[in-house]
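Re-run with default settings, no changes from the original entry. Doing this only to confirm the output is reproducible before filing.
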Amino acid sequence: MEVSQAIRARHCVRAFLDRPVARETVQAILDAARWAPSGVNSQPWQVAVLTGKTQRRLSEAIIAAREAGQAENPDYDYYPTEWFEPYKTRRRDCGLALYGALGIGREDKDERKAAWYRNYEFFGAPVGLLFFIERRLAKGSWLDLGMFIQNVMLAALDEGLATCPQASLAEYPDLVREQLGLGDDLAVVCGMSLGHADPDAPVNGFRLEREPVETFTRWYD
């Protein structure tokens, strides 16, 4: 697959088959992704690969926290405090399209809750990834980590696998660090589901358009 084809083909999968992914395959994906660029070759990314009991234990801990009414306490603000245009409309359209693909109505609160909890269960994927960065690093290193994460998704596609990057898995960073035995020096940035896409799940047909180049580009001669 050409690089430009891979970029266009990549999409977020929210339903996975109960089919294992070999450790060697995950190793190969990370081995390819590590060639991402980074300022002064700092390579600030750190990754935890979760499968089996550890993955389930983390999922259960996060869901239990939400059920108990525990407030989210992410290590950073992913979204703005107050949405404004054009982002407000894009966010609304994304939600409408997603819940439409799931067949869940606006008033069906129980189904919406169950669908949201699937985020914490890695959408049934056999492999969960969590991405970290040292707190002492500056914003530039976060950009480097973003390029690494994109590489992970494209390398996974090259292996015939699907992914879904998830900010939701960073909502309770203290729980993540506790479950994995990590220190507070590491900020939890996001998670990712990794596995074989379920071709029969309607939600996996969910797609959103991208803005044309003209809407975000300024040309100077």
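The mean pLDDT is 96. Helices lie at 3-9, 23-33, 52-67, 87-102, 109-120, 139-158, 173-180.
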